[in-house]
Amino acid sequence: MNSLRARIWTKFALIAVIGASASALYADNFQATYEPAGTQTPNTTALCAGTSTCWIGMEDFNTGSAPTTATAFPTLVDTGAPAGEISGSYSGGYIMDPADQYGGAGGTGYYPELFASGGSYTLTLTASGGLPGVNYFGLWFSALDAGNDLKFYNNGTLLYDFTPALFQSLVGACPNSSNAFCGNPNNRTEDSGEQFAYLNFFDLTGYFNQIVFTETGGGGFESDNHTVGYQDPPTLEGTDIGTVPEPGSFILLSIGSLALLGLMRRPALKAVK
User: Fold this and answer.
1) What phi and psi, each to the nearest 5 degrees, are found at residue 44?
2) The 84-92 sheet, strands edge to edge
3) CB contact set of 57 (below 8 Å; sequence gap of 6+)
4) For the residues 135-142, what does the mean pLDDT come to?
5) End-to-end CA separation in angstroms for the chain
6) Which residues of 114-145 are buried (b: 16+ CB within 10 A; e: fewer)?
7) Which of these, 64, 66, 68, lies nearest to 99 by C-alpha position?
8) How confident is the model at residue 244 (pLDDT cuts 50, 70, 90)?
9) How many Å apart are CA 48 and CA 264, to the nearest integer?
10) Where are the alpha helices (DSSP H) in 70-219?
């Protein structure tokens, strides 16, 4: 009986480990990067330099509104791509603010902002024509604070969750007059206690079709120049923040580890008897 149980545990452990390996192999892997201090727009030349197909579009919100129905992003780059485009629509609790100390790239136009803790809004994306999906997103992350949370989904599955703690630790604390990331680059004396930076997000192994912006603290979530794209192959650009596999990989790896631990402990239990 004990031999049979051991074989069952062995099979369960092997299946879990194999499943975890397969999930890790095929799961989406995200990489986040940031541009040099003062950057407020995407570096399209670098984004497309290593690609055979590159489509990049950007919403700058300068009309004072965000599209609430599927609307094509204004095209910045379209190289080597078959006919197609990426469309997006915004829904949720954002407001449109005119440029001020907290946001508005270039010091002009408008930008979307969240105020309420727990509030959120969603950008829903659709690729059409010859573009198979969206695997790049960039934005000017202004007045960065610990309550700003950015989640990427594909058909309801969470792929990546970005919080600014890692970025803040990489570029240094504010206020600091010698830290070029501190303060609004359009006027460094404004909001000198928070970081301002252009961030890039790359899905290296798949696509996403929803981005959820959430304010989890008591501050605001400000951003501008939302940029979407399709790269083939994905081409990293900027200074690395980190790579994170899809959450499903961690779940399966944990199951596999627990199964192996159970297998390893059974002989010890038998010895006690």
Assistant:
1) -65, -30
2) 71-72, 84-92, 119-129, 210-215, 148-154, 157-162
3) 72, 73, 74, 75, 76, 85, 86, 227, 228, 229
4) 98
5) 15
6) beeeebbbbbebebeeebeebbbbbbbbbbbb
7) 64
8) low
9) 50
10) 165-171
C-alpha count within 13 angstroms, C-beta hemisphere, residue 159:
26
Reported pTM: 0.81
Which of 146, 151, 189 is CA-nearest to residue 30? 151
pLDDT of residue 209: 98
Residue with tokens 């399966």: 252
pLDDT at 250: 42
| Paired tokens of 154 | 């594909």
Q: What string of DSSP letters covers 215-248? A: E-SSS-EEEEEEEEEEEES----SEEEEEEE-HH
Q: What per-residue confidence (pLDDT) applies to 243?
A: 58
Calpha distance 235→56 (Å, rounded): 13
Angle between helices 247-272 and 2-26 (to 10 degrees): 160
Q: What pLDDT is stored for residue 76 in this prediction?
A: 97
Assign 3-class secondary structure to 142-170.
EEECCCEEEEEEECCEEEEEECCHHHHHH
Q: What is the structure's pLDDT at 3?
A: 52
* CA separation, residue 128 to residues 59, 70, 233 (Å): 17, 11, 18
Reference 196, options 135, 251, 144; nearest CA is 144
Q: How confident is the model at residue 264 (pLDDT cuts 50, 70, 90)?
A: very low
